[in-house]
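Progress narrative, Year 2. Work on Cytosine-specific methyltransferase from Hassallia byssoidea VB512170 advanced from sequence curation to structure prediction during this period.
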Amino acid sequence: MIHSNNKERPIAVDLFAGAGGMSLGFEQAGFDVLASLEIDPIHCATHEFNFPFSSILCKSVVDTTAIEIRSKSSIGDREIDVVFGGPPCQGFSLIGKRVFDDPRNSLVHHYIRLVLELQPKYFVLENVKGMTLGKHKEFISIIINKFEKNGYKVRKDYKVLNAAEYGVPQNRERLFLLGCRQDLELPNYPQAITRPAKSNKAGLNNELPLTPTVWDALKDLPEIENYIELSEKDWVKEADFGKPSNYGRQLRGLSSIDKDYSYERKYDPRMLTSSLRTKHSLESRHRFESTPCGKTEPISRFHKLDPEGICNTLRAGTASNRGAFTSARPIHPFTPRCITVREAARLHSYPDWFRFHTTKWHGFRQIGNSVPPLLAKAVASEIIKAIDIKPIKPGVIQELGNENLLMFDMSQAARYYGINPQVIEPRARKSRCANTP
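Result:
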């Protein structure tokens, strides 16, 4: 656990933490994320593996208080610099019907309550782009008014940021609301630092470096079909990595990410993880092969990645209580198969030391639900500037957690955290899952 003796680093709390994409981005910007809250015990276990020195509270925001967050972490009575999180707002998703009074959106109100109880200097609320469209803007106004009546101010020129403009090889747009206490200066939104090669977005500086491409992200990864053992487990100890791009070098830990103030993790860079193979039928493989890059395969509706472009938005699918739908995984640009969890992680800007649940279903859900770390880092860096401190790189190398945490099923994970296994409804297993045509 990171204790309060490291007082040079500002402290943060992650609400709706998932596997930890935002936690990692804020850590990379220079924060110590001392407490994280997440209801799903599978996500909690993955978060604990990757951040074993932090405190994960496995429970709903509905049943949590600021006193509990402070007492069950090393925060105690210290002042919190930032609280961040993305309350699930499926009612605003562009995929759903965007029902204004969708009961699932009540989680936003509990997010606001916890921010007001914790009284941080700053807060960041991340959400889907759909929240900014049509009548849903009213909901943003309600959020802003609630904060303004309780000693906070919010940037009213709220922005939807695209991960592709912050070094992530994926088209992924998310709303970020930035706020602070009345006595402080509001943070700015981060300026774009990369531009996708095939973007025609007005206002993007043509002198910006190009966003890494799909092939920049994937080209050095070993071909999983060369490893028979990846049919049974998701890792290989000494894999044959190729020559990486600059982006690949950074994610492998061979060179450092620009202005990365995260804790170094102890791991073996020759190990390939999160790479369980998928069994595709011969017919599916033929269809994948004949689909042009950048197009959608007509029967499965899977998108085939363009190696010179960026990835389409990686989605999580839905939980069992919403139909247990597994989102379509993209097709690899050169091998007739769906991409692996590790390949999705590369397209999401997760470093290779970061591991996910050993099943493809949970692994893809954890990535698709998360904010790309480099996008979170860009936002967090603006909060660091507003706090007006110089971030420092810790000298300590942190161990990762116990690998068993990545192998729990839902009932094992629930038992480990001492919660009811029905907190997340069990998914109905089907004989063929949607991503194995």
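Strands lie at 11-15, 32-38, 55-58, 82-85, 122-128, 152-154, 159-162, 173-181, 264-265, 397-398. Residues 172 and 313 are 5 Å apart (CA to CA).
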